[in-house]
Write a structure and sequence with these properties.
The mean pLDDT is 83. Strands 1, 2, 3, 5, 6, 7 and 8 form a 7-stranded antiparallel β-sheet that branches. Strands 4-9-10-11 form a 4-stranded antiparallel β-sheet, with helices on one face. The protein has one domain. The chain contains 1 helix and 11 strands, in the order αβββββββββββ. With 220 residues, the chain is an alpha+beta fold.
């Protein structure tokens, strides 16, 4: 009985630490995978001489109190001419690159400007755009009524924050380096802010001049 009691006590003490370690590993893996997608977007834009957009989709899941970013995907951007003569209009079309990536359960990218400034323009306005595919309410995210914010990587190596489309073309904003970041953290069921940010989080800063990303992981 003494041995069983000691083993049970050791398991009880070790379980919280093991759980935190496993959660930190999942968060780190999700962040590193996103870092890889950012590098892929930058390299694809350069090698194909075509703008590549990284779209982050926000929506509510069952436990969410407000929409947060749960998934992302890469898209190539091309332009086409519609109409003829003076009535011709240049519009953008998109081509998905690879598959939609869902963040692991419980891991989100908050919409708060202090944690994910890259989704906001220089005036602090969110660039949230309705996720539409073939005029359907269910867009590329596969979720009804989802929205997205995006970062566009250009062939010259720079990147821009994507705003709403005007006259068939997206508006692009060049962010200053200190503001070009986003954060992955745990947050199921809550709208995470800077004040409620958990100890473990994974922040990615993207250089707008080169499109390269670097990470900051203080809780690991």
């Amino acid at each position: 009985m003494v041995v069983v009691t000691i083993v049970a006590l050791m398991l009880a003490l070790a379980t919280p630490a093991l759980t935190r370690t496993m959660q930190a590993s999942r968060l780190s893996s999700a962040g590193e995978f996103l870092m890889g997608s950012i590098a892929e977007a930058q390299q694809t834009a350069f090698s194909s001489n075509t703008p590549v957009e990284l779209r982050f989709f926000s929506f509510m899941e069952d436990v969410d109190q407000s929409p947060v970013y749960h998934s992302y995907q890469l898209f190539k951007i091309t332009t086409v001419s519609q109409g003829a003569g003076a009535a011709a209009v240049i519009k953008e079309t998109i081509l998905p690159v690879g598959n939609l990536v869902r963040l692991p359960e419980g891991i989100i990218i908050p919409t708060d400007i202090t944690l994910s400034n890259v989704f906001y323009d220089i005036n602090g306005q969110a660039g949230s755009i309705q996720d539409i595919k073939d005029n359907s309410a269910v867009g590329y995210s596969g979720v009804n009524g989802a929205n997205y914010c995006a970062i566009r990587f250009l062939p010259d190596g720079t990147c821009r924050t994507v705003g709403k489309t005007q006259n068939g073309m997206a508006t692009l904003t060049f962010q200053n380096l200190p503001k070009n970041f986003l954060t992955l953290t745990f947050g199921s069921g809550t709208a995470v802010t800077l004040a409620s940010l958990p100890k473990n989080f994974f922040t990615i800063q993207i250089d707008p001049y080169t499109g390269k990303a670097r990470s900051y992981k203080p809780g690991f």
